[in-house]
Amino acid sequence: MNIIVASGKGGTGKTLVAANLAYALSDQKEVLLVDCDVEEPNLHLFFPQGGYELPVTTPVPVFDADRCTGCGRCAEVCRYGAITVLKEPPPLFFEKLCHSCGGCEMSCPEGAIHEEERAIGKIRFSNPRDNIILISGILDEGEVMAPRVIAAAKSYAGGHPTTILDASPGIACPVVEAMQGADYCILVTESTPFGLHDLALAESVTRCLGIPSGVIINRFSEEDDQVTDFCRSKDLPVLMTIPFDREIARIQNTGGLISESMPAYREKFADLFSRVTSAGGFSR
Amino acid sequence: MKVCITSKGPGPDDMMEERFGRAPFFIFFDTEGEEHNAVENPFASGAGGVGPRAAQVLIDNGAKAVVTGNVGGNALGALRAAGISIYFLREPGTVKAAFQQFKDGKLTEAV
Amino acid sequence: MKKIVVISGKGGTGKTIFTASLTDLIPGPIGIADCDVEAANLALLLEHVDVRSRPFSGLEKAGITQDLCVGCGLCKVNCRFDAIECQDGEYTVDPVHCEGCGVCVDICPEKAIVMGPMRDGTIYLSRTSKGLMSHAELCAGSGTSGLLVDQVKKEITGEMGDEKALIADGPPGIGCPTISAVSGMDAAVIVTEPSVSGLHDLERLVRMARGFDIRLFLVINKYDLEPGMSKKVEDYASKEKIPVIGCIPFDPAVVDAVRKGIPPTRQDSPASQAIRSAYDKLAEMMELV
Fold first, then answer.
1. Which fold has domain C2-57+129-286?
2. Which CATH architecture has domain C61-116?
3. Does the CB of A255 have a partner CB in chain C at under 8 Å?
4. Which of A10, A269, C40, C289 is 20 to 30 A off residue A31, Cα-Cα?
5. ipTM for the complex?
6. What pLDDT digit, counting tens, does each position of B17-33 carry?
7. CA distance C59 to chain B (A)
8. What is the mean pLDDT of residues C72-98?
9. Residue A250: which residues within 8 A CB-CB, separation 6 or more?
10. Above 60 in pLDDT, residue A283?
11. Is the pTM of the predicted complex or chain greater than 0.90?
12. What are phi and psi of B51, to 5 degrees?
């Protein structure tokens, strides 16, 4: 079963849910936890342990100055402005603007361009606890190709029977990349007008992608029923509510796991998995 | 020598544009003569990489210097590699006035 | 005109609430931009009247003209992004995966593929009691290029005349949208929280911001929840020579204000006093009045 934890709004508690769900589940079986928030990966802060890294690369053009005639065809063809043709070959190349489409290499009449791999990030693998394997996608600072690193992280997780993915906040293409192929999406929100507004945005994405979803309301307040009303109106099960609690906040803020320090939560998160599998129509 | 001024409109009486990559027009003046020509910036509303593409327009038009308000990192690299001198002018004014300031040597080259 | 953007690195630290408070305290008229285009929340706290809206198109994407297509499949073979699907012999472009590179357009022997604009979102202009405000909504799955953020800024700056300040609510993260939001601004107020995630993301954000000629200020939100971590954040700020203009205590009155749809500074409370004090420091250091 492949579960993705997502949220329209940042800071609602995605990482808290992903980390604790994985921890509670590790009592029963091996879990693969994948950090797809490649711009700001945080899961490793809750499961600190060195591991090993593999680079994520992307093909970029390399120009042969001797063959280049300065015709400018490559710069014309590049839709990202990554190539500037100067009076003297070779052209100037802006690697961080390159999308690795291969168009320049195909267009060069002199065969002066070939491709080489350039690192844009890395995947870190570790085994921080019994039965938990952590795969973190990390996009190098200044790079823009988040979806490529996310796809790489997911590919290393592919095929494992129990995977939990932590997505980045929002609804743009890195989130869609992470969500694709998931069996179930847990949307994490909070009991505030911001939480409601952004939950609606995120739910429209999961609906569009056809991924069954449920909601966890973090920092839950009985007074605020707008979020629960919204869930009811969209037939979204409220899988769990977590009250605002200073002890929970303290544990989370210092990199701890509430399902480790507070036994009631270990049970709640284990129970969460059962509810997700039955809500998603899967057998355990 | 050809100088480029980033502009909001196609004529020398139009106001100077502060941004380089997303400038709507580039106006090229000749320091030796009276001519000038305006080139509309086709990349002004591009999603990305507008800086280097704007620099390409200047290179293709033979500019040796540019007067503008701000230049982003990639554009800066492209202009420097092409040997185009950069002069910053951040007070509002017409393109004509900016060119006059350049001719009178009132602007300092960016280092 | 002073241009100030509020950013955070990590999401959920209280950026939007702080931005709304700034717009409440600073003397008008001002211009306001909500640059968090994926989750535009500022409008939920500022009473406003819509003025106009327009569609936004980002990257152009490819489309196949079926009448001209002969089904050779060259486009699909050469697409690096798996954006071309073939179903029952019909080739179509999946706009979610298409990156607008144009290779298929160039390679098609029948010239059956053209690039066209994609509706990526909507830009809104509205009027608040302090001045005009621009914000946008991005369509799900669209690319996060800084172009939409740039357009949101342009929408408001195009309408400004002698306003004293532009206040922008920035996006979370450190990528293209944040770069676009920070670009051209005079100062950035970073709102952070005292947690390991918050500090980790703060460090990445500061590294990104150093590439710009911009003054940095720091606000530690809910500082009293984690005094140990707050101290670590303060030590980091001191090392980086970033002035800490405010430490805001955790305060239920803030959520209460959000539920009422107003900035917390409209009600008196410990948090709103701390926000006022942070504003006073910012106003002094940036010579805002």
1. Rossmann fold (3.40.50)
2. 2-Layer Sandwich (3.30)
3. yes
4. A10
5. 0.81
6. 988 888 999 999 999 98
7. 6
8. 92
9. C225, C226
10. no
11. no
12. -60, -55
Contact A172 C107 (CB under 8 A): no
DSSP string, A199-268: HHHHHHHHHHHT--EEEEEEEE-TT--HHHHHHHHTT--EEEEEE--HHHHHHHHTT--HHHH-HHHHHH
pLDDT in tens, A68-81: 999 999 999 998 88
| pLDDT, mean of residues A205-233 | 91
Pick from A166, A169, A97: which is nearest to C146 by CA? Answer: A97
CA distances from A25 to A65, A283, B100 (A): 57, 15, 73
Both ends of chain A: CA-CA distance in Å? 9
Question: What is the model's pLDDT at position C144?
Answer: 61
Inter-chain residue contact A100 with C80, CB threshold 8 Å? yes
pLDDT for position B45: 75
- Asked if pLDDT for residue C8 goes beyond 70, the answer is yes
The two beta strands, C2-7 and C165-169, are parallel
Structural domain includes residue B54:
yes
- What is the CB neighbour count within 10 angstroms for residue A85? 22
CA A142 and chain centroid, separation = 18
Residue B67's domain spans which residues?
2-103
Q: What is the rounded distance in angstroms from the CA atom of residue B11 to the CA atom of residue B19? A: 17
